[in-house]
Amino acid sequence: MPSSTVPEYAFAAPFTHPPVSPIRRLVPYASRPGTISMAGGYPAQELFDVAGLNAAAANVGARLADCLQYSNIEGQASLRHALAALSARRGISCDPDTELAVTGGSQQALALLARVMLQPGDVAFVESPGFPNSAQTMRHTGATVLTVPSGPEGVDVEALARMAEIHKPKLVSVVATFSNPCGATLTREKRLRLLALAVEHRFLLVEDDPYGELRFTGEAVPPILALATGEARNWAAYISSMSKTMAPGLRIGWMVAPPEVRRRCTGAKAADDMACSAWIQEIVAQYLGDGAYDRHVPRIREAYGSRCAALGDALREHMGGEIAFLQPQGGMFCWGRLTGAVDSTRLLPYAIEHEIVYVPGNAFYGDPAQADTQAMRLSFATMNEAQIAEGIVRLRRALRACEANEPVSIALAA
Amino acid sequence: MPSSTVPEYAFAAPFTHPPVSPIRRLVPYASRPGTISMAGGYPAQELFDVAGLNAAAANVGARLADCLQYSNIEGQASLRHALAALSARRGISCDPDTELAVTGGSQQALALLARVMLQPGDVAFVESPGFPNSAQTMRHTGATVLTVPSGPEGVDVEALARMAEIHKPKLVSVVATFSNPCGATLTREKRLRLLALAVEHRFLLVEDDPYGELRFTGEAVPPILALATGEARNWAAYISSMSKTMAPGLRIGWMVAPPEVRRRCTGAKAADDMACSAWIQEIVAQYLGDGAYDRHVPRIREAYGSRCAALGDALREHMGGEIAFLQPQGGMFCWGRLTGAVDSTRLLPYAIEHEIVYVPGNAFYGDPAQADTQAMRLSFATMNEAQIAEGIVRLRRALRACEANEPVSIALAA
């Protein structure tokens, strides 16, 4: 055991005072028996295709001896080709040998792109509100990470344009389809404008697309990279993940990036973790090759769509105008705003006491001063329709209790 | 496809001119049919415990639904506890909840430790010759990486002491047992001296121990962390891997580090790749829990020991004094030195033409000026005893052809 006095380590600046995740702080409450959690940022466990994955694994098990060595750093050829075919079905053509790389989720894809582009003194942009880990991986490079206002209609592209003039970012990361936390989707016009800005200011525009295949209603908009032609193609990267469609426990994602960028990401990955597991990669390639993925995604799309509809219905029926929201067209999240005097942080302990948990909006802002304190992220992914309806009934009760200043036993750290 | 002119990306400094790996350059030659490769830094495929791994996987498959979500960032509890027990058998006691974390091979453990400790302006030390990826992951932080002379008796601890006075490193990485490429093992006295230096100069001493369990002969020396008491425990970390004992394709390693360091590594991993695959972690935990690991390691130890003995015999029999070497007591590598006029780089194309491949020593030096140009790394892991003997016969023929200046058709890039 280490001695009891903590030595004064000289950590690298981004790690001197590690932030406490306000989302992770909620986990003990969200996992209480009887509690309905709309806090999770993960898919529904009961929708995993366990049989299909076991079938793919059995196939790989029969040739396991060939799947136990180091993988190519950029990924097994079988999986790269399968992911290139999947990307092509989303409108993105790419060369699996020079533009595509397998990564440990899309999180690692973003981390690698950040690492090869950014160093102290550089500037990167992220959306705010946005997924905290996206900003965090950029901050870890020592770069300055600035936030561009975003919301239920996606990132404010004209604000981004003004900020780019001033700050000259080297990397800009957006979730263009069914964003986390807002569930927002950027129009085609805004996507084209982002590409033009990337070319003009020579920043790498990274679209993180974990949710794009989970569209329930409305018309699909192509990924940004699918709209990139000529010079724009040199400044756009696409990253995606199997975490929301297959399972997070695979830790398989990928990037499509310009060859010179991808080549450096391969060098970064070699020094980071050598490669992704060849075993798991072969299972995912087998699952894609079996057609299991193409059969599975419509099933979860239907299930999540039904849950999303149930959430909208419940909010309209039980909360009246007390929570404003846009009905999401896909993804896993709904961004609601309390319209009364109570803000989402004040409401939270009451909600927990009433056995319904959400993530307050301020968890998704890098700068607390920018935070929309009325907002909350409601995930509709992991609860069924009846639980969702019951959860919103509980939320109304919690709001009433909060408005009445009733005593509450839950004490959350600030 | 990107347009044909390469845009001028402003990459982060460590990625502006990515190095070409001299080892990877050899792969096409090493994998030619008929060629005997002693170049690989990986274990023997035919020694993988495919049946045991499939049995563990089948067990996990029966409870797969519970292994598909995001893992804890620091690793599944089952695996952390199993790895703490394994570490304890190596002499290292630790708390699996505050000191141990599962990582993507020991490579990721080193990368995470480097990232939380190092930034531009800082100094880190690595051994030279040493595993190139160890130095590379530190360079990627922007820190200055200095090399401490090493060799068949391990890192020069007194040289390290003198350098530490001058350069004040924040992190020092060593392979203390059966090093790559030298096969060297540090004495207990030198390990204790390293710990004293770590306390004196307040650097984090990281021992990378992928090979320690592969001891064929001689007396075991405890891992450095097992010798750390009191304040020294605050400045020592231990990292290890399943890549050499189970299989590289699992991508499972671990760290034991002081809690404040480990906590920050968890934050770094969250932003890097969220976690290792829960599925694979559960398979490894099951394999360890089954006792399969404890049955398997003696088998591969015996096999590698026999191959190591065969290499020593062949070198003595066929090369006489023309290659000097110390008989390794474990691991996968033998460090040989050509004693004549021919150096290992000049010999290499002849060797390839004679269908025997090794890695020339200069591949393991960060600074070419320091390189021992006579040296070569011979892996005895992946070839059987007959192939090893034949390989050394071919090497002698190649040396004769080289000495005679015979024409050679292989042209290797510098």
Automatic annotation (TrEMBL), chains A, B:
Keywords, in A-Z order: Aminotransferase, Pyridoxal phosphate, Transferase
- Report the GO molecular function annotations: pyridoxal phosphate binding; transaminase activity
Q: Which cofactor does it need?
A: pyridoxal 5'-phosphate
The record ties this protein, via Pfam families, to: Aminotran_1_2 (PF00155)
Q: Where is the Aminotransferase class I/classII large domain?
A: 66-395
User: Which CDD domains does the protein's record reference?
Assistant: AAT_like
**Domain of life here?**
Bacteria
Name a biological process GO annotation.
alpha-amino acid metabolic process
What name is this protein filed under?
Answer: 2-aminoadipate aminotransferase
* Organism from which the protein derives: Bordetella genomosp. 10
